[in-house]
Every structure is written in C-alpha cells, then in structure tokens.
From TrEMBL:
Renumbered residue ranges of the record's region Disordered: 1-27
Gene3D superfamilies attached to this UniProt entry: secretion proteins EscU (3.40.1690.10)
Keyword Thylakoid: no
Name of the protein this chain belongs to: Flagellar biosynthetic protein FlhB
Transmembrane segments: 35-53, 80-107, 143-164, 193-212
Gene: flhB
Membrane topology, as annotated: Multi-pass membrane protein
Functional summary from the UniProt entry: Required for formation of the rod structure in the basal body of the flagellar apparatus. Together with FliI and FliH, may constitute the export apparatus of flagellin.
Stretches with biased composition (Basic and acidic residues): 1-13
Subcellular location: Cell membrane
SUPFAM superfamilies: EscU C-terminal domain-like
C-alpha cells in the first residue's frame, strides 16, 4: 500500500532496501506477468498448432480405429486412460514449459536474482482478523485491485462480443464447411478475441507496473530520524567515535613519549611544535622521527627530553616543516637533509668539545 505517513519524506537507504529485499518484499506487477504470459501462450500456440493438430489427428485415428475391438473392462480402461494421459502430456508439455519459462523470465526481469525463505516463515499477524478487515475495506490498495479486476473483466467480456457481432454473417456458411475449415476458422476467431483483449490488458499492466513501483518506493520511505539512526548505526555514534579517537591518540602519545629518550635531538618551534629525531646509519640512511606533537603534547615531549638529557634545539622553520611533512616512524624528506644535518653536526661538535 502506498505510504501515507507525511513524516516519511526521505528516500529509502540501501540498507533499508536490502533488508526489505531479503524479506521477499520486492516490486513486481502481477498484471504485467499475466499479460505477457497470455501473449506468450498465444504466440506459442500459433507456431505449435500444426504439430498439435497432427498429434491430435494421430490420437483420434488410433482411438477411433480401435474402438470396435476394445474390451471395456477395468484393466483396459485404466491402461487406456494412462496412455491417453501420457499422450496429452507429451502434446501439451512444450507449450506449458514455454508459458512457464515466460512467467519466470518476466518475474526475473522485474525483481532480479532473489532467493529467500522469509516468505515461508509463519507470521501470526497474517491471522489478525481486524487488520485483515482494515486492509480489505479501508485500504486504497483494495480499491486499486478492485478497479483493475473490473476493467479486465469488462475488456475480456467486450472482446468476444465485438468479434462475435462482427462474424455473425460467417456463421451460417460454416454449416457447409469441412472439419478442418471449421477448426481453422475457430482458431483465427479465437486469436482475434485474444488480440482484442490483450491491448487493454497491456495498458492496465503498464499502469500497474508503474503504480507497483511507486507504491513500493512510498512504502520504503523513511523519516529523518530513521535515516539519522541508520547513519549512526552504519558509521558509529559520533560520541563513541570521538572517545575511541581520543583513546587512540592517547595510546599513540604514550608510545611516542616512550621513544623520546632514544632521540638524538628534539627540534622545537619553541612552544607549538616538538619533533624528536634519531639518526643511526645502521638503522636507516636518514634521520627518523620518533615522536612529534603540538601544544600540550609538544610540552610533554620536551619534559621527557629534559628528564633524559636529550638535547633540545629551537628552529622554527625546521620544526614547522618537519611537523607538516613527516609522520612518526618515517625518515625525513631529502629537502630537509641539510637543515637536519646542520643541527646534528652542531650537536656532535658540541659533544666532542665537551669530551675533550
């Protein structure tokens, strides 16, 4: 039934669509399937009628040719019925398979590949008499189905009337025709009736196809709160994500502070940034950033460096460039080699001077 809740203004999310599809709730027009199946059966009969006629002639010749010698006892009658059922099944099976395949193909094109067992699960709500009566008498869907049924009954009833009225003058000459001519005339007239009925049926089917899709989309619509809740479930609660991010940053900061004592130098902004560097030719061809931080974290890096005697050097341009260009654990870029090497060289020269 089409959604009438004015608060549901948002289109269904992919998750909502997938959930409905898994439950077997998909848009499909029964009228389109019905019309195309009838058309396929009629077209199939047109191509198959010659083979069917030959099989029928063979069947009647066999049946009537052995009629006088047939002993109608119980055993023979059963054998005859079984043989006749097999022959009729073999005659009708191709056209029935074609019609069945057409019905399956039309549904497959409408709903795509779908297999679910949800439709077989027992649901007590289906046995709610009050809800069923409400759907029957107070649902717009009921009036839509009633309108479709009345229109189809009208057109299917009018088509034979038009054909019979048109063919009235051809009925009397049939008295002088042979059986084959009468059969051909009946098939042609029947095909005309089918064509006359199929045109309005297809118009109804197209309208039903559009209405089914529109009604399905209206049913799946969501309120703004529902879309927000679903987005939170998909992405996580912003508060929880912020807490997780905060904990992750604390863990990273703790790990970085543990590595600061291993640094050769801490380069500062001096107050906003602090970057701890270590250079060991046996580990990497260029200095590595062991820790970096801004504001409060920068102050903590400097405190740890002082506690463990790691030299601190102020170099605003270099500190800003390192903070923006290098992540923790990475080597410094080539364009900063010279600036960092100058700082390290001055440190080593200072250490060498103190040692002497």
């Amino acid at each position: 039934m089409a959604q009438r809740d004015p608060s549901k203004t948002e289109k269904a999310t992919p998750k909502r669509r997938k959930k409905a599809r898994n439950k077997g709730n998909v848009p499909k027009s029964q009228e389109l399937t019905k019309a195309l199946t009838i058309l396929a059966g009629s077209v199939g009969l047109l191509f198959y009628i010659d083979f069917l006629a030959k099989d029928m002639q063979t069947l009647f010749r066999h049946f009537l040719g052995n009629a006088f010698g047939f002993n109608p006892n119980q055993q023979n009658v059963i054998k005859l019925l079984m043989w006749l059922a097999g022959e009729l099944a073999a005659m009708l099976l191709p056209i029935m398979l074609f019609i069945g395949f057409t019905a399956w193909l039309v549904l497959r094109l409408q709903v795509g590949k779908l297999w679910t067992t949800e439709v077989f699960k027992f649901n007590w709500s289906r046995f709610n008499i009050l809800a069923a009566l409400k759907r029957m008498f107070a649902s717009p869907e009921t009036f839509v189905r009633l309108g479709k049924s009345l229109l189809q009954a009208l057109f299917i009833g009018v088509a034979p009337y038009i054909i019979i009225r048109r063919e009235m003058h051809n009925f009397l000459p049939l008295y002088y025709s042979d059986a084959q001519s009468i059969g051909a005339y009946m098939l042609k007239t029947g095909w005309d009736m089918v064509r006359y009925a199929l045109v309005p049926m297809f118009i109804i089917a197209i309208a039903d196809f559009w209405y089914t899709r529109w009604s399905y989309e209206e049913n799946l619509k969501m309120t703004k709160d529902e879309t927000k809740d679903e987005r939170k479930q998909a992405e996580g609660d912003p508060v929880v994500r912020a807490q997780q991010r905060r904990k992750m940053m604390q863990m990273m900061a703790k790990r970085m502070l543990q590595d600061v004592p291993k640094a050769d130098v801490v380069i500062t902004n001096p107050t906003h940034f602090a970057i701890a560097l270590r250079y060991d030719a046996t580990e990497a061809p260029a200095p590595i950033v062991l820790a970096k931080g801004a504001d409060n974290l920068a102050q903590k890096i400097k405190e740890v460096a002082r506690e463990h005697g790691v030299p601190i050097r102020e170099n605003k341009p270099l500190a800003q460039a390192l903070y923006k260009a290098v992540e923790v654990g990475d080597m410094i870029p080539a364009e900063l080699f010279q600036a960092v090497a100058t700082v390290l060289a001055s440190l080593w020269k200072f250490k060498a001077g103190r040692a002497s």
